[in-house]
C-alpha cells in the first residue's frame, strides 16, 4: 500500500515542485501553494459525484460528447472556479506567473487523488503511464488556465480582463476535450497522444517564459 501511495503522489509533487521553483521573481508563500494543492484534492469527490449524476441521469448517444462534457467541461470549470475564488483575488497573486503556480497546484491536487484511486484499483504497473498522461496533462491544462488568469489579472482594460478570463477557462476545456477524444477516436491512440503531450509540454514551457517576461515588465514598472 505504501508503494501505491508513493507512486500516486510522487509525480504530482515532482511536477508541482518544477513549476514552483521556476517562480524566480517573487516566489509564492509555500503555505498558499499547499493550500491550493489541498483545494484540488478536496475537489475530486464532489466532481466525481457530479459526473456520476450527469452520466446516470442524462442519456448520452455520443461517447465522445459525453467524455467532452462530463470530464473536460466539469473538471476544468471547477478547477478554474477554485483558482479564481481562492487565489485570483488574493494579495499574494502579485505577478502574472502566480496564476500558473496556483492553477498547476490545484490541478495537481486533483490529479494526485484521482491517480491514487486509479492505482489502488489497477496496481502500480500502470504508474508510469499515469504519470506521463493523466497527471501531466492536468498540470499542463493548468498552465494554460493560470497563464491567462495571470494575463487577465494584470490587464490594463476591463474588457481585456474579461476576455482573458473566458480564454482561461475555455482553452483548458478545449485541450482536455481533445485529449479525451484522442483515446476514443482511434485504437492506435498511442501514436497520437505522445506527440500531443510533447506539444503540450513545449507550449507550456513557452507560456512559462512569456509569463516571466510579462511579470518582469510589470515588476519594473511598479514604484519602489
Question: Care to describe what's here?
Answer:
The chain is globular. It is built from seven helices and no strands. It is mostly helical. It has one domain. The model has no long low-confidence stretch (mean pLDDT 88).
Number of helices: 7
Structural class: mainly alpha
The average pLDDT is 88
Assign an overall shape: globular
Count of DSSP E strands? 0
Biggest sheet character: none
List the domain count as a whole number. Answer: 1
Reading the helices and strands in chain order gives HHHHHHH
Radius of gyration: 17 Å
- How much helix, percentage-wise, in residues? over 70%
Alpha-carbon distance between the two ends: 52 Å
Q: What is the subunit arrangement here?
A: single chain
Proportion of beta-strand residues:
under 5%
Give descriptors for this structure.
mainly alpha; 224 residues
Annotate the secondary structure layout.
Layout: H1 2-21, H2 30-57, H3 63-88, H4 97-122, H5 127-153, H6 158-185, H7 190-221
Helix pairs in contact: 1-4, 1-5, 2-3, 2-4, 3-4, 3-5, 3-6, 4-5, 5-6, 5-7
What's the short story on this structure?
The chain has 224 residues and is mainly alpha-helical. It is 83% helix and 0% strand.
Amino acid at each position: 500500500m505504501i508503494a501505491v501511495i508513493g507512486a500516486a503522489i510522487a509525480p504530482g509533487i515532482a511536477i508541482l515542485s518544477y513549476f514552483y521553483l521556476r517562480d524566480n521573481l517573487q516566489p509564492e508563500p509555500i503555505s498558499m501553494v499547499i493550500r491550493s494543492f489541498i483545494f484540488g484534492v478536496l475537489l475530486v469527490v464532489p466532481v466525481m459525484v457530479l459526473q456520476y449524476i450527469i452520466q446516470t441521469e442524462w442519456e448520452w448517444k455520443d461517447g465522445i460528447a459525453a467524455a467532452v462534457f462530463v470530464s473536460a467541461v466539469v473538471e476544468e470549470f471547477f478547477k478554474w472556479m477554485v483558482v479564481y475564488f481562492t487565489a485570483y483575488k488574493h494579495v499574494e497573486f502579485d505577478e502574472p506567473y502566480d496564476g500558473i503556480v496556483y492553477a498547476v497546484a490545484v490541478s495537481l491536487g486533483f490529479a494526485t487523488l484521482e491517480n491514487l484511486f486509479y492505482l489502488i484499483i489497477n496496481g502500480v504497473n500502470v504508474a508510469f503511464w499515469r504519470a506521463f498522461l493523466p497527471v501531466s496533462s492536468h498540470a499542463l491544462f493548468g498552465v494554460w488556465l493560470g497563464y491567462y488568469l495571470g494575463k487577465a489579472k494584470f490587464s490594463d482594460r476591463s474588457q481585456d480582463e474579461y476576455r482573458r478570463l473566458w480564454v482561461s477557462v475555455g482553452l483548458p476545456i478545449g485541450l482536455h476535450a481533445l485529449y479525451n477524444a484522442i483515446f476514443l477516436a482511434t485504437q492506435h491512440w498511442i501514436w497520437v497522444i505522445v506527440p500531443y503531450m510533447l506539444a503540450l509540454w513545449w507550449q507550456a514551457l513557452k507560456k512559462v517564459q512569456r509569463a516571466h517576461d510579462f511579470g518582469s515588465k510589470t515588476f519594473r514598472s511598479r514604484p519602489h
